[in-house]
């Protein structure tokens, strides 16, 4: 079967500051979403890309994609569907647009525009080798603390530390995450209500874990970082400049 990539791009990107939805913000003059689509289409394994647009922005995103066509010889098909109120809901809506011949699915954040094609290919290869769920990940630079969040009247007061997980056992996970299609669809259907009740997952592999299905990690890449805060835009443009040099 063929491989598709679903790109959730319906987020507002509040942490990046006010303005255009994050995926439509430019990096060196080209919208982040376009970089992300190209990163998926660059893999010879990927023959279909489903872009999940803001719920009221599908027409605008379609126009943007038409203004930034893939290379002439690239046969990758690009579809656009409207997204939902959470990342999980957006991915579920994207999965509904897959054609019948797709057996492997990547899910890739529009907010990770610079992932190298070798990382994409490594994820696809691990799924083709039989893993139902594969995530690219890196060791952590920072030590991580679990805290007791302050709420209500106590909001803003220092938060008590509850524990320190052993850093060597932790990984920061990236995208694209790769899945056997049936496994990913089953996970999204089973836990769709959880997302609506605020108990959704922040990544797709998290849903597959809840199914009780094994998830494995392959090496991620530092250029697959997520553009979340303003400083990340500076870093992303520096990475692009270095690639051109
Ligand atoms: O908010 P976060 O950085 O976790 O978003 C990760 C990805 O999920 C982004 O590409 C964002 O556009 C997407 N997203 C979405 N639908 C939402 C919220 C986020 O497609 N409702």
Automatic annotation (TrEMBL):
Substrates-to-products reaction catalysed: 2-C-methyl-D-erythritol 4-phosphate + CTP + H(+) = 4-CDP-2-C-methyl-D-erythritol + diphosphate
UniProt-listed Gene3D superfamilies: Spore Coat Polysaccharide Biosynthesis Protein SpsA, Chain A
Record-listed E.C. numbers: 2.7.7.60
Membrane-spanning parts: none
Signal sequence, renumbered to the chain: none
PROSITE patterns listed in its UniProt record: ISPD
Keywords carried by this UniProt record: Isoprene biosynthesis, Nucleotidyltransferase, Transferase
Keyword Nucleotide-binding carried by entry: no
Pathway: Isoprenoid biosynthesis; isopentenyl diphosphate biosynthesis via DXP pathway; isopentenyl diphosphate from 1-deoxy-D-xylulose 5-phosphate: step 2/6
One Pfam family of this chain: IspD
Record site feature (Positions MEP for the nucleophilic attack), residues: 167, 226
Site features described as Transition state stabilizer, chain residue numbers: 15, 22
InterPro entries referenced in this protein's UniProt entry, alphabetically: IspD, IspD/TarI, IspD/TarI_cytidylyltransf_bact, ISPD_synthase_CS, Nucleotide-diphossugar_trans
Molecular function in Gene Ontology: 2-C-methyl-D-erythritol 4-phosphate cytidylyltransferase activity
Known role: Catalyzes the formation of 4-diphosphocytidyl-2-C-methyl-D-erythritol from CTP and 2-C-methyl-D-erythritol 4-phosphate (MEP).
Alphabetical list of NCBIfam families matching this protein: ispD
Entry similarity comment: Belongs to the IspD/TarI cytidylyltransferase family. IspD subfamily.
HAMAP family: IspD
Annotated protein name in UniProt: 2-C-methyl-D-erythritol 4-phosphate cytidylyltransferase
Gene: ispD
